[in-house]
Fold:
Amino acid sequence: MALVRGAEPAAGPSRWLPTHVQVTVLRARGLRGKSSGAGSTSDAYTVIQVGREKYSTSVVEKTHGCPEWREECSFELPPGALDGLLRAQEADAGPAPWAASSAAACELVLTTMHRSLIGVDKFLGQATVALDEVFGAGRAQHTQWYKLHSKPGKKEKERGEIEVTIQFTRNNLSASMFDLSMKDKPRSPFSKIRDKMKGKKKYDLESASAILPSSAIEDPDLGSLGKMGKAKGFFLRNKLRKSSLTQSNTSLGSDSTLSSASGSLAYQGPGAELLTRSPSRSSWLSTEGGRDSAQSPKLFTHKRTYSDEANQMRVAPPRALLDLQGHLDAASRSSLCVNGSHIYNEEPQGPVRHRSSISGSLPSSGSLQAVSSRFSEEGPRSTDDTWPRGSRSNSSSEAVLGQEELSAQAKVLAPGASHPGEEEGARLPEGKPVQVATPIVASSEAVAEKEGARKEERKPRMGLFHHHHQGLSRSELGRRSSLGEKGGPILGASPHHSSSGEEKAKSSWFGLREAKDPTQKPSPHPVKPLSAAPVEGSPDRKQSRSSLSIALSSGLEKLKTVTSGSIQPVTQAPQAGQMVDTKRLKDSAVLDQSAKYYHLTHDELISLLLQRERELSQRDEHVQELESYIDRLLVRIMETSPTLLQIPPGPPK
Amino acid sequence: MGNGTEEDYNFVFKVVLIGESGVGKTNLLSRFTRNEFSHDSRTTIGVEFSTRTVMLGTAAVKAQIWDTAGLERYRAITSAYYRGAVGALLVFDLTKHQTYAVVERWLKELYDHAEATIVVMLVGNKSDLSQAREVPTEEARMFAENNGLLFLETSALDSTNVELAFETVLKEIFAKVSKQRQNSIRTNAITLGSAQAGQEPGPGEKRACC
Structure:
């Protein structure tokens, strides 16, 4: 304490102000059983809320009233709470008459719920902790059991208690490691852009519009717009439930919005209109997206801030794209590709233009190109669709990544290197070869070329998902997946996110799903850049998809590198033409490995971890089966011809 | 005690190596049968054996030493592994007390599956790591005496007592066999293939059923 106080003379000794509060939900006991069926178990999770921020623990299944979570989250203390804490502190020194009034502003609300597979989750109990009181008791870590109560106004009954550790912290220490790292590297470079962007940002509107387009885009690619509505709706629900998804979505949305705002403000308006106008699908999406965006910020502050940064970074590329359109920004080009696709989609320009711009500037645009063509065909819808297309392609690629991370990376790299000629050719016809210069773009283009193949592939995939989405056509499924993955395309890291997001969306009903779906499993994990890239040059659709996502990520990476050379030393090495790009891609892929986790929320990380654990346990089981099989074989050998087991007299070493 | 040729032996004694994972069973085996030591710390998978023929007096005794992973879990091979064994080296790592603490469990498993007359030696391996010793020699020796076990401390790394340990066990087995068989020193071979299935209990009592 003394040191801290000394460090902050201005605040005075009693003025140590925590900026965050870290809440660790350890466990509960004496919970009521809610599951029908065996015993009185419950699938318990706890929602942790401070102010408008909420986190949720994972679900401990079939607990007999005493789940153990040991999950922590950190809340930025709302301004009101801060005052309360301050007063509480002052109260320590002397009486503070106004302390009580502000107390309500900083309550920690712990709501333990039972996850119902069907219907609404059931309330198990709620505990409210006055943070100022806790803080008043000292800055040390407080671990305490809190009694769970019934909902206010309802009959009180024995609901058990919950053990929580509360720790007040200052600055961003409580934030994730990534935050810190981000500050050092990517942030600084992009901060400027960010600021600029922010000036133009219109968060709510933009994010909403952005979200909508992405979802819509997917459909156009597939060609079944009508289906889109369903798919979107599906995803949206999922999103609503899973905050993490919403986050990624929002981030995307914000990016797109940013880009759109900066690049084509005029377009946004129309685009939004179009979306709303367009049949239920678009409207759905728009509304949903709006919700998500609105919600997401509240839910995860830290991460959100972090994600914001990412978004900003992402945003930067779009901006760059815009610039590129007008003027070529060497630095921004690469970045442009990633966001660029979105941007372009958003832009109100005629469909034809979109194509060219997309193909030229945006890596992700590969898919976009195809989209753009459709765009023109579709006419008015095209505007709406374009977004979805871009997103869709990205998402699909992401999904692919999930399944084949390694291959995807490899493929991505491969396309960049192998198809340069093709890409160029494609570009030329499109008429916007100039901006295409970035390798990422080329890869994306290659991807676009392969889109036809992809579509075919998608169908099979969709088949995988069919379980989840009954009755939906394959294309719809694909769209859905793309929707879920919207976030992916923007950032290198984001693709992973998005993929995970997808999984979650699919599995959102129950966290379990993720683990079960083989296809989904891989997606959460970041792309494995090194190993896969060189090995697999096959022109699989999956690869192409992955390449798209990779390209996106790489584009982001490039942006980072461009803006801040410090981030990726490897990329710095100057190489000519596409070679450079491919290398960058690889590097970016490496970076992506960690980057993928940047944007993951606490919940997402936990679910990822749980998924891994499930996979591991499955693997263990498999190993055990193999072992027992080997043992049985050994027994047979030992009983019939044991000499086979004799260690062959090898040459003396 | 010279090495006899592979074909020229009067007895085959099956000896099993047991003990916790990582105590050095495999290296004891390779040291004794091939005079090799591997710093590769991979755990043993599966089951294998190695042989070495030693002369005990006038008799050539082929030691068939079996080695497997020192896993706690039950394995289907357990009973087959112990079947027909007339000697056992129960190995622990004298630098890891935990491996000594579970010796009793291994003894139980041994007696559950092997003949009661099996010759058992408690082996404290890794005596070269004296500075890291966690199991006092006397403690282990006392335990061995109380349980009717032979006892030695060995080092597969520097070969200390490795030969002695195996030969002591083989001698003990041989003595038991000789005692039981009295004057019959003809080729009593505990051959793996044929003898194993129909082996009778008791060390050295098994004749090759040629």
Notes: Residues 1-5, 190-210 of chain B have pLDDT under 50 and may be disordered. The longest strand of chain B covers residues 47-56. Chain B touches chain A through 21 residues (CB under 8 Å). The CA atoms of residues 178 and 185 of chain B lie 7 Å apart.
